[in-house]
Amino acid sequence: MLVSCLVCGKPTTTTHMGMDVCRACTVFYQRHRGARDRLQCFSECGDRPCIDRQKGVFACRKCRLDRFEAVMRAGEEPAHQSVDGSAGEAFGRMMQQLIFRREGELSLRGIFLNNNDTIEENYEIIPCTYRCMNEGTRILVAGLFDFASAVFPDFQKLPSDDKWLLIRNYQQIFHCIDGELRALQRFGQESFFTFGSYTTFLSGEFAEKYFIDCPDQSNLATAANTLRECIDENVPAVQKQIYQIDPSEEEFLAMIGLALWSVENVEPDDQLLAIASRNRNQILAELTAHYGRTISNEQGTARLGVVLCLLQEFRRVDLNLKSEYEIYRILNVFDDDTFMYRLQAHRAPEVS
Q: Which Pfam families does the record match to this protein (predicted)?
């Protein structure tokens, strides 16, 4: 099977160290990983470019080593920890997951932020492409395993197959909830931009650019039109609803948690079904108690209904995207090895 090396981008028929990286990049890493302190980035000492992205050639050894290590971090399954389930700590875990995604994606683009730029999110949001989203989804999935295990003790105890069942079902709707809220904050209500991955955006204007690095470009124009229609159908409607509801931090976390434990679209066994039901009920009880402390029980009941309607809107978008991915597969702009398609089709992904 021919894949693209995640480090240099060149085609390779073999993978190494459990990742889609070619033999040349693997040998390079093994030779130079102990010499990091002696390597210097070309962009820091002159005008010579570090990377020829069109040819997949690294002139700079430091940047090649940095990219290899970023790919390794993106593919690792994070360590699991138990934490208290309070909203403040859950939000802290959420922020760690978002930072993991941001730094992982930027590292794959050859961007390494200093502390001030990290805090201020001072980096360029670029148009999303097939490869950006595919790599970003790998990073997202790794972060979601860590987040779910840290916030929900029940998730830690699940068998590996059940964890994958939940995360495959969860990753797209998580991205929708997080991405649309961030898009409103970053781009404003009238932009109709959305995030394709954590650090890239999608819009109808750049639909053709999205497929520029897809496996087969013979149906690019049809695929681009399909993507434009998808954006027009989904983004304005969901962003309008978010803007009107303006969910609080607690409501945002409740939607994130309820989405994880929503198993309507999968086939869980009785034990997983009971665990999911218990966690959903607990989240709803905590949100109801929060409303009782901050507004009133009557107003809280009404507000809860509004939040659940917004979550249902995200589910609608999630289902639309699943159908959209099937169209892309028919058009061959996605193939059977496209990571995000394998997740949507609930096929076992190869990430380790």
A: Hormone_recep, zf-C4
